[in-house]
Amino acid sequence: MTKENLIEIRKLNVLRSGNRVIESANLEVERGDYVGVVGPNGGGKTTLVLSLLGQIPIESGLIRLFGKDISDFNDWHRIAFVSQDAINFDVHFPMTVRELVGLGRVNRNNLGRRLRESDWEKVDEVLEFMRISDLSERRIGQLSGGQKQRMFVAKALVRDPELLLLDEPLSGVDAQTTETFYKVLSNLNLREGTTIMVVSHDLAAVFCRMNRVICVNRLVHTAKITPDLDSNDLLKKVYGEHFHFAFHRHSCQGEFKGV
């Protein structure tokens, strides 16, 4: 059975500040994929994601979303995006976690009206899924970095997106929080079938938990993550010949039962 491509890129070239940041890129992301986007700083990872969202004009090439050329794509409610700057907000803003997540239910069809009971039920369901229901009445400025990230993912998820894009969601977060976060994302992918693309520097999380990797350093290399994949050979294409990647595999593909 042929899977549906939610993202398809062909011969993509993208310029930023007059420099070609993405060159001749080709890739596909299928429905149900859990994809890691990796590569050195400045290599073009964020540029690639922003191009997919139509936020950066492309020089040439093709981007298709859900089978439609990006120039004709209007179903943006099917895609949710959490930027790396999401947690940089005024910590004194008087809003609770539940109220902020509820903003994810606001769209052009209900703008100006109060959220319905069904909307708040969805909010509470997602807060529970993201393991932050106990924080629902806490002010957003009182959260830790990892809690803020889960809050913004919850805000994205209440829209019921088919595709979730995350750009370096865990910069500066401790190892235990990082592990918890990626376990929750694994649950989202396994239980709900949500297609996820996450820009990450955590190579162990990518190669242990995800099923596809996109390596970006101007040129783009992609691979399905399988037991026989030579990860070092792939990563040397973007990090350089000096690079050596080693980690201890462990059982991490199953569902996460608790924080």
Molecular structure report:
This protein has seven helices and ten strands. The protein has helices at residues 45-52, 97-102, 117-129, 145-157, 175-192, 203-209, 231-239, and strands at 5-16, 19-30, 34-38, 60-65, 68-69, 79-82, 163-167, 195-199, 212-217, 219-224. The strands form two sheets. It has a six-stranded mixed beta sheet, sandwiched between helices. The longest helix has 18 residues, at 175-192. With 259 residues, it is α/β, with parallel strands linked by helices. Helix content is 29%, strand content 24%. The chain has one domain (5-239): Rossmann fold (3-Layer(aba) Sandwich), CATH 3.40.50.
Number of alpha- plus pi-helical segments: 7
End-to-end C-alpha gap: 36 Å
CATH top level class name: Alpha Beta
Globally, the shape reads: globular
Question: What is the percent of helical residues?
Answer: 25-40%
Tally the beta strands.
Answer: 10
Our estimate of the beta-strand percent is: 15-25%
- Average residue-wise pLDDT: 88
| CATH homologous superfamily placement | P-loop containing nucleotide triphosphate hydrolases
Note the main sheet: 6 strands, mixed
Q: What is the H/E string?
A: EEEHEEEHHHEHEHEEH
What is the correct CATH architecture? 3-Layer(aba) Sandwich
